[in-house]
Amino acid sequence: MKIFDHANWPNGREELIKYGEKELNILSEFYKKEVSNISEEWFGYKAIVHSNFKNIKIEVLLPRLFEFYYDTFPNIIKLLGIIYSIPFSSVDCERGFSKQNLIKTDLRNSLNNETLHFWMMVGFEEKDLSEFNFTRALQIWNSACKRRI
What we know:
By secondary structure, the protein is mostly helical. The chain folds into two domains: 2-83, no CATH class; 91-144, no CATH class. Helix content is 60%, strand content 0%. It has helices spanning 13-18, 21-30, 38-52, 58-68, 74-83, 91-103, 113-125, 134-144. The chain is elongated and about 75 Å long. 9% of the residues are buried.
């Protein structure tokens, strides 16, 4: 994935021409069903990005590439879409399993999937209690329907 981040690209013209060919061949071999003839697009892609978008971060550049250069570099853009949709780590998954184990204990083993999902979302989106507006929550709860208190 490093080869697509233009911040890592060499500045010299000769080095830039040869840069990333080996890595691109490995990626195109692995994703050969999704991309084809990618090596022809690679040189043009590097030239445009290096000359026009050198000082733009990859996070800002990607949406522009998808919008304006999909017809010019369809295989490169497909590969970028695949690569940048792969998570960099499994931390979020591990956090999810941990939260699930805290919620669905032996005493609550009959929770259905919908309820478990609801409580997990509440657990992920929870705010610090010092930030929570209890007065506003009470007003919303009270205005939802007629209640006898």
